[in-house]
């Protein structure tokens, strides 16, 4: 009896702790050690009044399109400026790096519902301030940002959706990191409902995926599952020697060809592969 009570206490204690700490586990804002640059920095508001910030690289009025980007859970928009400049240089697309509340010294606390509000705010900002039609927009998401970008695409479909190191669903990730018995009740206790695989299976937008085969944070198979589930397939880039955060560095020019091809989507676009990339 005592042993059973202890087991139940541990189980319910674990359930409560997980329910209470989900956002703390998912969102891990790093410290901003120096003031971000003012060049290209803009501010805008979400519908709940939360003040947000982002960085614009390039001119969205004259560019052929705008790539709206969402970063991972332990990253910052400002840290992606060099990458954004490279995207603009290779594609001529303007790039908008959106930030989440609670990150980069912004007020507020990030949560699953707040990512929807913050993503919508960035989209509205591009539409109202720069007059960018959604057909001239493409969305990019890395890791956590892949779920954010996919959910925004579900509401406001872009011209293309680019996902780097995407996870298939929050439930699938939970199976990797929580105690197995808890997975059985995950849908009951979870407040985080990203389901990228389902979204892309219903989305009438070309979906392109890049993933490192050596990814130890989001398994490579999840990226393949997301691409395989896509209703409209764009470009698939498999980077054999890359992990979670070095896909662009390892792939080099093939990465930029992937970006360029993904931003000029075609129905039944081919599959690209690192080290012997082939076109179907």
Radius of gyration: 19 Å
Low-confidence stretches are: 266-280
Overall average residue pLDDT: 87
- How far the N terminus sits from the C terminus, by CA atoms, comes to 62 Å
Q: Given the C-alpha coordinates, what overall shape results?
A: globular
Helix content: 40-55%
Individual helix count: 11
Lateral strand order in the biggest sheet: 1-2-4-3-5-6-7-8-9
- Note the main sheet: 9 strands, mixed
Secondary-structure element series: HEEEHEHEHEHHHHEHEHHE
Overall structural class, as computed from helix and strand content, comes to alpha/beta
Strand content range = 15-25%
How many beta strands in the DSSP annotation? 9
Topology:
Elements: H1 2-26, E1 41-45, E2 51-57, E3 66-70, H2 81-91, E4 94-98, H3 112-130, E5 137-142, H4 144-155, E6 160-164, H5 170-177, H6 180-183, H7 186-189, H8 196-202, E7 206-212, H9 220-229, E8 232-239, H10 247-251, H11 253-262, E9 272-273
Parallel strand pairs: 3-4, 3-5, 5-6, 6-7, 7-8, 8-9
Antiparallel strand pairs: 1-2, 2-4
How is this structure best described in words?
By secondary structure, the protein is an alpha/beta fold. It is 41% helix and 18% strand. The chain is built from eleven helices and nine strands. It has helices at residues 2-26, 81-91, 112-130, 144-155, 170-177, 180-183, 186-189, 196-202, 220-229, 247-251, 253-262, and strands at 41-45, 51-57, 66-70, 94-98, 137-142, 160-164, 206-212, 232-239, 272-273. A nine-stranded mixed sheet has the order 1-2-4-3-5-6-7-8-9, with helices on both faces. A hairpin with a 5-residue loop joins strand 1 and strand 2 (51-57). It is globular, with a radius of gyration of 19 Å.
């Amino acid at each position: 009896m005592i042993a059973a009570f202890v087991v139940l206490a541990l189980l319910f204690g674990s359930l409560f702790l997980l329910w209470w700490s989900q956002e703390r586990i998912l969102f891990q804002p790093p410290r901003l050690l120096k003031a971000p640059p003012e060049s290209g920095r803009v501010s805008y508001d979400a519908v709940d009044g939360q003040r947000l910030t982002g960085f614009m690289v390039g001119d969205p009025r004259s560019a052929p399109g705008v790539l709206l980007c969402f970063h991972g859970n332990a990253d910052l928009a400002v840290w992606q400026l060099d990458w954004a400049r490279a995207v603009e240089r290779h594609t001529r697309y303007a790039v908008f790096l959106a930030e989440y509340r609670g990150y980069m010294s912004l007020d507020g606390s990030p949560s699953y519902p707040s990512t929807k509000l913050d993503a919508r705010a960035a989209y509205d900002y591009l539409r109202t301030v720069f007059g960018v039609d959604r057909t001239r927009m493409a969305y990019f998401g890395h890791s956590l940002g892949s779920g954010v970008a996919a959910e925004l695409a579900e509401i406001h479909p872009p011209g293309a959706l680019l996902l780097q190191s995407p996870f298939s669903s929050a439930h699938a990730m939970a199976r990797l990191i929580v105690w197995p018995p808890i997975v059985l009740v995950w849908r009951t206790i979870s407040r985080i409902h990203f389901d990228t695989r389902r979204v892309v299976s219903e989305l009438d937008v070309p979906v392109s995926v890049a993933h490192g085969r050596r990814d130890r944070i989001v398994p490579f198979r999840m990226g393949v599952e997301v691409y395989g589930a896509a209703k409209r397939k764009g470009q698939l880039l498999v980077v054999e020697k890359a992990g979670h955060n070095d896909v662009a560095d390892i792939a080099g020019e093939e990465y930029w060809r992937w970006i360029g091809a993904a931003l000029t989507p075609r129905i039944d676009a081919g599959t690209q592969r690192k080290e012997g990339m082939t076109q179907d």
